[in-house]
Amino acid sequence: MENAANVDTLGKLVACYNQLSEMKEKADTEGPPMIVDEIFDIVLPLRSGYIQGRGPGPKLHSKA
């Protein structure tokens, strides 16, 4: 099962990379110029647990 999850994750990663590449090329040749950060915001939606511009938020320490 681990291999299936890894293949699925790799497939999603490749799809995101291809979409990023296509958008960058399209912005460079056809449309209004976009910076890489703008393209990332479109392709990779904001995830909970992340602070925009700061990366992952603080980790809570569990009391053992």
List the helices and strands and how they pair.
Layout: H1 2-29, H2 36-43, E1 50-51, E2 55-56
Antiparallel strand pairs: 1-2
Helix pairs in contact: 1-2
General description of the model:
This protein has helices spanning 2-29, 36-43; strands spanning 50-51, 55-56. The protein has a two-stranded antiparallel ribbon with strand order 1-2. With 64 residues, it is mainly α. Strand 1 and strand 2 form a beta hairpin.
Give the helices and strands as they follow along the chain: HHEE
- What ranges have pLDDT less than 50 throughout 5 or more consecutive residues? none
Shape, please?
flat
Total beta strands: 2
The Rg value, from CA coordinates, equals: 16 Å
Q: Helix segment count?
A: 2
- Which structural class do you get from the secondary structure elements? mainly alpha
Major sheet: order of its strands? 1-2
Helix content: 55-70%
Query: How does the major sheet shape up?
Result: 2 strands, antiparallel
Beta content: 5-15%
Report mean pLDDT, rounded to a whole number.
Answer: 76
**Spatial gap, N to C terminus:** 31 Å
